[in-house]
Every structure is written in structure tokens, then in C-alpha cells.
Design brief:
Length: 292
């Protein structure tokens, strides 16, 4: 965790930094020198820092004519990016989530609303949506509501109980963690409720369903097995995309369900209509809530 104390003003004797240190070619003029943790120095006019960053407005010396040197405990890619954002210079494409998160932390530390707003508009780019829990964690911490909702939607492809997600989930405040779990559970339970209660599935759900061909009572245990599998699927992947993809046709429970027939020899009418059933499932899934 970075704190304001990670910015340590060195003595104000001007060029106390050793001359062996390199200066960044694009930041070569100004009365303040910022040194990265990798030893690169960035010269920048103090008035730019004061206009753009609350921290420097209050801390930079305004009267000392000597070169002011500050060590910044940040790597070059982070410090350079935030300085570029402050100065309105072109910035490279984001390479990683680490880079974005560290840049955001530095911008927050400096109280720099300009860079923060640029980072906010970048945070829902595809590269970051690939890690929805990390996005959710940042968005909830900073209080970005829209980005929090987007992250919650993208989390639906994940099983929150998976070991691999525990570290990210542990970063969350408990109310945000609960909100996410509730969304996942709500989708699963609403879907189950629809499979158990929607009239379109009456044929499978009613205990006394007669065969529409001969009136013989149907054995619906295949439908129950199919529903159990669908429930597990929604539990582990509440997005439900596997239930509306071709994957579902390959489940043993689906194959058995579609193969179930009336036991009356001479009738043998299929118990269920796959096309109607799958269409109804798709409709049910599309009606589920998609954000916290
Ligand atoms: Zn029959």
C-alpha cells in the first residue's frame, strides 16, 4: 500500500542526485525533478504539478529557486504514464492490469483527477474485462458504480467458489462481496424456479403427466435429471451461456432426456420437444438479472 510518505523530498541543495542518473528525454525542463525507483529523472515545471495534483499544490516549495528533487517510489512505466497524462502527452497502450492499478494508485496519491478520469475510461477495455474480479475490486474501492456493474456482469462466467478467485475476493469489502454472491445466487435460483414452475415445462414437472399420444402416464425422471444438471451448470457458471450453446446437446442428461419415450409399445412418442424446451430455457436465461 502506497502512502503519501513514499514521496520523500530530498534535501533542497539542488543537484544532490548523482550525475550518473539519466533524465527522461521528454521531461527535460522544469524546476522540479522526480526520481523513479529505477533511477530515471523527470524534470517538470512545478506549476504544472500544482495545477494538476492536489498533493503538489500543498507541498511544493514555491519560493526556493533551487532545483527541487523528489524521490517517487514508483517504477518508470507508472511514473512516466502519470506524468504523460498530467501533461496531456500521448500514452502507450496499457500492457497489464498491474500497470493500470499502480498508475491509479499513484494518481490517487497525488490527488490528480485528470489521470484518474483517463484511467477510469480505460478500465473497461477488453484487456481488463478478462479479470472481472480485479476490476470489480478496484471499481468498488474507488466508488465507480457503472464500472462496478460492468465488472459484476463479466464475473458471471466465473465460479466464485473456485480456489483461484479467493485472493481477489478477499480484497473486497464484505458488502461488495455479498452483493456479488447475491447476484450469482439470484440468477441460479431464479433459473431453477423457472424450470420448476413455468407452465411451458408443465409437461415434465407434473407428476401425473399423460402421454399426448396415448394417455399413458409418463416417467419424468429424465427431465428431473436434466434439471439437476442445469442447476449445477448455473451454480458453477451463472452466465448460463453453456445452457444456450451447442454444449448442452452433448450432456448425457440432455441426450437421455431427449431420448425418453412413452413406454407404451406401439406409441413410443418422445416425452419432450427439444426445440421448444431449449427455446424456453434461452428465454428464461435472458430474463435473469445481469448486474448487481
Ligand atoms: Zn404414449
Amino acid at each position: 500500500m502506497h502512502t503519501y510518505s513514499s514521496i520523500i523530498p530530498t534535501t533542497m541543495t539542488g543537484l544532490q542526485c548523482e550525475p550518473a542518473h539519466k533524465y527522461h528525454p521528454q521531461f527535460d525542463s522544469g524546476d522540479v525533478v522526480l526520481c523513479s525507483s529505477e533511477g530515471t529523472r523527470y524534470r517538470i515545471p512545478s506549476h504544472i504539478l500544482k495545477i494538476t495534483c492536489g498533493l503538489f499544490r500543498n507541498t511544493l516549495c514555491t519560493t526556493n529557486p533551487a532545483l527541487e528533487v523528489q524521490e517517487v517510489n514508483e517504477k518508470d512505466n507508472v511514473l512516466e504514464r502519470v506524468l504523460r497524462l498530467i501533461c496531456g502527452l500521448e500514452t502507450p497502450r496499457w500492457k497489464s492490469f498491474d500497470e493500470l492499478e499502480e498508475s491509479l494508485e499513484l494518481a490517487e496519491k497525488w490527488d490528480a483527477p485528470g489521470p484518474i478520469s483517463v484511467i477510469r475510461s480505460a478500465i473497461t477495455a477488453p484487456i481488463f474485462l478478462e479479470e472481472p474480479l480485479r476490476l470489480y475490486s478496484i471499481a468498488t474501492r474507488v466508488g465507480w458504480e457503472e464500472e462496478t456493474k460492468i465488472a459484476s456482469t463479466h464475473s458471471l462466467a466465473l465460479d466464485l467458489c473456485g480456489e483461484e478467485h479467493q485472493a481477489q475476493l478477499e480484497r473486497l469489502a464484505s458488502k461488495h462481496l455479498m452483493a456479488l454472491f447475491k447476484l450469482h445466487r439470484r440468477r441460479r435460483d431464479k433459473f431453477k424456479h423457472s424450470l420448476d414452475n413455468d407452465p411451458i415445462y408443465n409437461h415434465g414437472n407434473c407428476p401425473q403427466t399423460p402421454c399426448t399420444g396415448c394417455g399413458e402416464k409418463l416417467d419424468n425422471h429424465r427431465w428431473k435429471e436434466f434439471k439437476a444438471r442445469a442447476f449445477v451448470e448455473m451454480d458453477q457458471r451463472p452466465l448460463g451461456d453453456t445452457l444456450i450453446s451447442l454444449d448442452i446437446a452433448e450432456w448425457p442428461e440432455t441426450i437421455a432426456c431427449w431420448a425418453a419415450k412413452c413406454s407404451n409399445k406401439g406409441c413410443e412418442k418422445p416425452n419432450y420437444d427439444p426445440a421448444t424446451t431449449l427455446r424456453a430455457i434461452e428465454l428464461s436465461i435472458r430474463e435473469l438479472p445481469i448486474t448487481i
